[in-house]
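Entry 14. Ran structure prediction on the chain below.
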Amino acid sequence: MLPKSLHTKKYEDDRVTTPPYQNNYQLGKGKDNGLCFHAAKQPYEGNEIMNANYRVVWSAVRKALMVVNELSSAGHAGSVAAAASVAVMLGAAALPAQAAVDVNQVCQDGKCVLENITENGSSSLILQGPHTASNSSANNASIILSNSSFSNGQNGYAVQFSGSQTIAITNTKFEKNTGAIWFVGHNKATEKDPAINATDFLASNITLTNVDFVNNTKTGSGGAVYAYGKANAHMTGGSFDGNSVTQANNQAYGGAMVVKSGTWTFENVAFNNNVAKATGNNGYATGGAILVDITTGIQEKGSNSVGKVIFDISKDMTYSGNKVESESSDSGNTYGWYAYTSGGFLFLDRASEGTFKIADGSTLTLGLADCTGEDDSIASALPYSNKQDPAYSTLTKTGAGTVQQNSSMDNYYGIFNVEEGTWNMAKTWKSRAHTTVSGGTLNLAKGLILDNLQSTKASTYYQAGQLTIKSGTVQTTTLTIQNSANATDSSDQASLTLSGGNLIVTDALKVSDGSFKMTDGMLTTGIANVFTHGSADGSLSGVTALQSGLTISGGTLNFTDSGEYAYSLLSQMATAIKDANVTYKFENAVLKVESTDIKDGKLAVTENFTTDAIDIQDADVEVDVQANLTLTGTATAAADTQKLVGEAASIVVAAGKTLTAGSAEQEIFAAELPKVTLADTSSFNILGIDLNVAELAGSGTTSVGDSTAAGRLTVEKLSGTGVIFVDPAWSDTEELNVVGNASHLAISTINDDKLQAKLIAGQNALIALNASSAAAEDGFARLSAQNEDLVWGPEGITAALYLGKSLTLDNGGVLVQGGTDKAGTGKATASTPVVSGSVTVASNGLLMINQSGLSGAAIDGSLNLQKDSVLGVINADGSSIELATGTVTDGGTTVVTDNQFVAAELNAASKSIVTTVKSGELAAAAASMGLQAMAQRADSILADNIAERTSSTVTDLGPALWVNVGGESYETDSLGRGAALKSDMSWGIFGADVGITPNDRIGAAVQYGSGTARSSNYGIRNEFDNVGFTLYGVHAFTDNIKVTGELAYLHGSNDVTARGDTKLNNSASVDVLSAGMRGEHRFQVGAFSIVPSLGLRISRVKTDSFNVGAVKVDFDDQTIVQVPLSVSLSADVLDYEGWKIAPFAKVSYAPMFGDKEATVYGVDQDVFSTNLVTGSLGAAVEKGAFAFKAAVTGGTGNNGASVIGGKVGISYAF
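Output, structure tokens:
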């Protein structure tokens, strides 16, 4: 029988804590160099014990069990017979169980390697290492067990380890054993031995990878695993499923596992369907899956060894089906602590520790949504007294992920720390725990009850629930603080302390008995939860006092009530609280000012408060801010731009007080304020809002953006002398670190055009002076488009200043210092000194100067450009810029422009930037547009068609109409400096002529053509249209000799775009006026007619100017002369039933003289291809008054020119 005291406790902590070995065998070192099976010593568990001087040994030599005298190390005579008796005592299954393991093979020099072991129904395999108390000679320090299985073990734990060992178990399954693994660790040899001093012992290093414990059972404790000793253990993957313990009239604990000491980490390990079951009137069950405890039997540096478990989860997992069952509702003694049946999943006994470390994006779910009672719950033991040290277990939530607890934690009485991530409780939590939230979120979907209970062991001890919020968020539907135990001492009553973070109570808050103390942080709830109402109908028109049990001495009261409230409500609240350190926030409300609130034309703000806006209808009111005021605005405001103080004329902020516009929790939207005057030491903060201020005056400090959010501020007029600091943090999402998401300060005008304020562009900040934020953003975009290394971000440009026009520094100054990396190394702060009368641009800073807005020097003052800064010229036009009237310091700046055709160079000595047009590149780009070339091609096509018409026209008196349509592909790729283009053009010409004498004919024609010219040079594309008109006449001296005259005008319009460079985009036009004369003579040679011709054509080409950025491109008018020579050959007419068919061919050569080049900034650039030689082949068909003609043409010329085309024509002679 067990000693009576053990019926109330699983083990005495100052005794041997080994559970019954139940005839196990120990694998050690025998004198026969064989495998040693030790009958386990059971000093108090009630088993039969052999004489301690003898042990049973398996002799590899004799192939039999022997009884050995440990004192003499000699085998007894008749040992085989003795072994037979022992075998009967130990169970027949013991003999063959070890046959598969040959220790001489698997264990060498203290290292055991066991692979592919299959044990079914075997006794325990015991591996002992250094510091095993019962076997000082044991030396199996390293053990590897892999790819094995242990099942149906009936004589104790399947595998037992002891001492200081390195143990690695992989890909192994333990199923249906009477216990799977017993990590003995550093257990005492006997109950009466003193505690083990493990200070100098090496901790066992245990790893389990993909190990499954399934349906293992045990009496009492540790259904699958019992862990004891100084150890660091890490289990990765695998599972505990269906394991159980049972115990009659005592404690059943750790259905899957008991962690008595050491640290165990469970990385993505599954726990499901594990049970601890107690029967009988005195039975109780704890830890359906895991029980964690301490031990006094192992000391380290004079302290007890503490069991610790860590659930390290990096994927979504659910623990369910873990239960505790008991036939009794009584509590049990756990040595200075006591426990009820509880902890379906986890039970933390005494001062043990548990941590849930959940990775970001992962969720661990405890229990199914419909779980009840203690299923999958977390619980702990209760101390007898709060005088015990330590008195409580500790449960901690770390990691950014989520614990979704569908189970109960009502019977957890220890310390509960929420440090990171989210802990969601689906059920109402009746808490008697000591909870501290220092980060992350504790979310109670069904409410929180803070309560107490009176100890059943010591009537003077009360366990009272405590909630302390230091940081992070606690959100609950309801909050009740009560005193179920009727404790009279306040220290024995439940309490809540809010000293930081945010407590959100969405429904009812009630303190029936206990305390609610708020010293800082934020309470987010309804007004009625904090104040009593003054009106009988319960309306919120007024308040009289704090609700019972509330003590508020600091922090922010954030009221969620929506609507419009009287401004006088503020003073009523302040009177009720009687503390000036409280801030009032109306999250969804507007405070309406009545005439009675205005005294001497002022609305006094005497309480710290936050609201969307203050509704002031009187346009003459000054808002006198004598406390801290936050106007958040709302993105859902009906107006496009929300007026935060209505029609008020001005705001004055008193010394030491702060006015804040916007908040970090909202999307940026537009709002406005009237004139704001800042007294010395006052502050004005802009966050999460695009704010327009009519005027900013005074000497206080303005901040735009901070570490939580960016802000935008536009000041219509700056007359103040204070500091304006622009400095938001970088985003963790690199794609969001663009100039458009930076904090912006735009100052439209400066009082008297003289800056007296100190402006600081910190990290991720953009300041625009005498310009808008949009202009500054556009300036940066234009610079970065031309300079690929110029990027906005933590490793690029970190801060910038844009000057829309010349800046005069009067006692003011500007500092551009955003730091050099994401951490903000070297960035300026609001207190960084700014040199008066100077603009300073630090490393990674950018100064942008709008050249077109300057009148004199860019800066009337000094300029300091430090190493690795950048100076950018916007609207660079090729002329020089005077940078400053004072000194210019160049510490190693880079100068860039927004125009790739303009180069810039800084000359610090002359205090100027010299910009020059890259005329050669610009000329090549202009030629590649094909402005003149396309107009000239259209003019040539018109001339060729008139030449053809007049050559074939019969000189008679009848009128005729004719139409030609055609198209061509033209290319020239050697215009010089890389200029080249390809084009496709289609055209149509309609003409009419009439004979006025038998030898003379006159006519007119109109032309329309359109097409596209393309160039790989800058990706230029020109969509062009041409319209032409011509008058012509022909005179026949004889039937074979003719002369033709022509006068033509053509207008070409062009729509030019360029890839990635909008500066080349233009809509220039070209006009061509031409006059020409041509003579021909027809010769008949047999069946062929040969017609040579010679002409002269003079054209005047006028091209409109256009701008490339701020650079104006002008072209001089060009005069070109062409001498077209041609020879045509046609066969005699073939006449077939009235159809006349005449094939023909023609060769032309058109040398060009004159202004073949256009001059661009002193550079002569070819724009025409010259000396084109073309050939055509076609046929003419006539029948009656109708004539039809078709031809194809191809040719080549200088400047890499080539052309191929075709046309068809029809005419009718009356």
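Residues 931-952 form the longest helix (22 residues). Will compare against last week's run tomorrow.
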